[in-house]
């Protein structure tokens, strides 16, 4: 059975080995869940997520057209209970032309959580929806930036990082617009602008990697 890589157990501050605007290793794969209409696996450093999409018949007229179920591996600590609702808000607004006779079910399974889980879940869920050919306004990319001190902010929060506040920003790369924004903590307006810019730059890089994956898997983005 898989077990997560143990994080550093020391309580002393851990020296960051990445540049302030450098992201952890990112691995993306499509078609990882058999029999799903669409699926994806995303690895961001030690944070790992699997997402799968299934279409089912809408039984009742009032049934929602899009639902999300978030689960975690049994060896992980409980996630922020607001994660499913945040993920829903970020992704549901991207979906267009919902079939009145069909429900889109998105299952997100967190295998390992070493920070930036909301951004990782948004990216992985988005990939699964694209793989399932769900009609969307645009595909989106997300990243997390945290405030390490009053004068320093860094990309891609890890659990061992000391964070005074952090933001998660999702953008639509084709339209160059912010699609979702989440903030934890207090941040001054001038610092906020710098953090958003780092997030947008990172999201553009993630978008390029996603486009490469789409081409490799012969997926056409109809936007």
Task: Write a structural description.
The protein is an alpha+beta fold and 223 residues long. It has one domain (26-216): GHMP Kinase, N-terminal domain (Ribosomal Protein S5, domain 2, 2-Layer Sandwich), CATH 3.30.230. It contains 3 helices and 9 strands. It has helices at 83-92, 117-131, 189-216; strands at residues 26-30, 38-44, 47-57, 66-72, 102-112, 141-149, 152-155, 165-172, 177-184. Strands 1-2-3-5-4 form a 5-stranded mixed β-sheet, with helices on one face. The radius of gyration is 17 Å and the shape is globular. Mean pLDDT is 88; it is low at 7-13.
Keywords summarizing the entry:
223 residues; alpha+beta; 5-stranded mixed β-sheet; 3 helices
Short description:
This protein has 223 residues and is α+β, with helices and mostly antiparallel strands.
Mean pLDDT across residues: 88
Number of domains: 1
Sheet with the most strands: spatial strand order? 1-2-3-5-4
Rg is 17 Å
Which term fits the overall shape?
A: globular
- Overall strand count: 9
Which class best fits the helix and strand makeup?
alpha+beta
Low-confidence stretches: 7-13
Secondary structure: elements and pairs:
Elements: E1 26-30, E2 38-44, E3 47-57, E4 66-72, H1 83-92, E5 102-112, H2 117-131, E6 141-149, E7 152-155, E8 165-172, E9 177-184, H3 189-216
Parallel strand pairs: 4-5
Antiparallel strand pairs: 1-2, 2-3, 3-5, 6-7, 6-8, 8-9
Helix pairs in contact: 1-2
